User: Fold this.
Amino acid sequence: MTVRRNETKARLARGERALGCFLRFPDPGLAELLALQGLDFVVFDGEHGVLAPRECEQLARAVELHDVTPVVRVEENRAPSILRYLDAGALGCHVPGVESREDAVRAVRAVKFRPLGDRGLSASRASGFGAADGFPAYVAAANDETLLVVHVESVAGVAAVDEIAAVEGVDVLLVGTLDLSHDLGRPGELRHPDVVAAADRIAVAAAQAGKALGAVVGRDPMDMQAWIERGARYVLTTVESFVTPSVERFLAQARSGEPMREELGC
Assistant:
């Protein structure tokens, strides 16, 4: 079968937690390093990064070597943009700025082939450059395996979250807390009561609709715990959140002359 099994989507379907990382750098070596650490998926960031479909194709190859799910965050909810990233081989798609049922339906139609959507069909990398098992089998498998994550990250999105969650084909409601805090007039204040209340509202909608709740966590362990307690099962962080604390720890320990608490490779 041309389409790989999406182990991340399978984990979520079993009620398990899937763990991943945003990557905004066009380096397949770094993508492979992340894949080797045991992550379930890596999200190539085409919205807040510099990545284009060409780079994502190489990044997808790198993580597939280790059976890690290649996912992409597209820059906007437009079918032509989404198509190019999926044709490059992504098995999941993050769609930002979903604020209504209509936005969610538009995302589903862009990600799925007929009869579920309108995704264009081609002999691209995603189809094995020609669907050796036949295009009918490829279309059916791609519809089954492709994961759709919609970002709810605005006041309008929270107001419409029940309708968004009810759309068939949406797998994950991801809380875009930073954008949401900004839209609420509290930029970066992720623990402000208004931001927390909005996040809780999205969590309730996801649970009631039987969709997985997604969350991006930072460096604070309490942040991770809070999201898990809300029921988040699609949980990811960023490369920066991995690297920055490690560099800070190395510098602090090296400058103080204290013994290193963890082995550092070189």
User: Anything to note?
Assistant: The chain has a mean pLDDT of 94. The chain is about 45% helix and 15% strand. The radius of gyration is 19 Å.
